[in-house]
Amino acid sequence: MKIKKSYPLLIVTIFFAQLIWGQNSETQNSKSNQTTLSRSGLFIEPSIFYSTEDSSIRTSQLPILNDDTSGNTTGYGLGLRFGGHVAEILLVGVDARYAKMKNDDSFYRDVDAAVYNIAPMIVLQTPFFGVRLLGSYIVYGENDPSNGSQGIDLKFTEVTGPRLGAGIYVGPISLNLEYQDLKYNKTEIESYGSFAVNNTTDVDTTTKGYILSLSFPIEL
């Protein structure tokens, strides 16, 4: 008889235990979701890339030629994005790149060039099939080709321009395609033939083209 009389009390106890446990579980899940949404930290993203671009040098502004020249430039390079991320969705930081290029210009001819640039950047990682949207604006860098036709040696500086693209994030790798439109606002004439010149002119040089890259995002 005593055992039977304890059934209602046992049922009420179990009911309140489940109610309290359910509330605690919801609170913990809510806190966990808030933690996930507010999660932030640092990241680095090394990359390797291939670039192909059309180039143009306004050599008519130089005292050497009367016409502008054009060509193309291709090559490989290394890059590094680094900065901070918010909720694993928004990445903000700096994008630095270095490349060894091959310039083939109608006047400058076929020469090697060292190219680097630095840009503030932003990356939006969407929830749709791992798609990422990439945007940056180059604010510093140079393009330094080796000696060209007739011993002329130029270096292009004060670069600016946008770089926009998209990527697909699969596991630890992101495959990215970007388009950039850069303008070099200064040209240093380092030498002409056997004569050192070391003169700076306002010669406009542009490069426009595509960059295909593999990058490896790492959260710190």
Termini, distance in Å?
A: 64 Å
Sheet of most strands: 11 strands, antiparallel
Count of discrete alpha- or pi-helical segments spanning 4 or more residues: 2
The general outline is elongated
Order of helices and strands: HHEEEEEEEEEEE
Strand content: over 45%
Q: Give the overall pLDDT as a whole number.
A: 80
Helix content bin: 10-25%
Tally of DSSP β-strands: 11
Uncertain ranges: 26-38
**What is the alpha-carbon Rg in Å?**
29 Å
Helix/strand/pairing category:
alpha+beta
Explain this structure to me?
The chain is α+β, with helices and mostly antiparallel strands and 220 residues long. The protein is 16% helix and 64% strand. The protein has two helices and eleven strands. It has helices at 2-5, 7-37, and strands spanning 40-57, 69-86, 90-105, 109-125, 131-138, 140-145, 153-170, 173-192, 195-201, 205-215, 218-219. Strands 1, 2, 3, 4, 5, 6, 7, 8, 9, 10 and 11 form an eleven-stranded antiparallel beta sheet that branches. Strand 7 (153-170) and strand 8 form a beta hairpin. The chain is elongated, with a radius of gyration of 29 Å. The N and C termini lie far apart (64 Å). Residues 26-38 have low confidence and may be disordered.
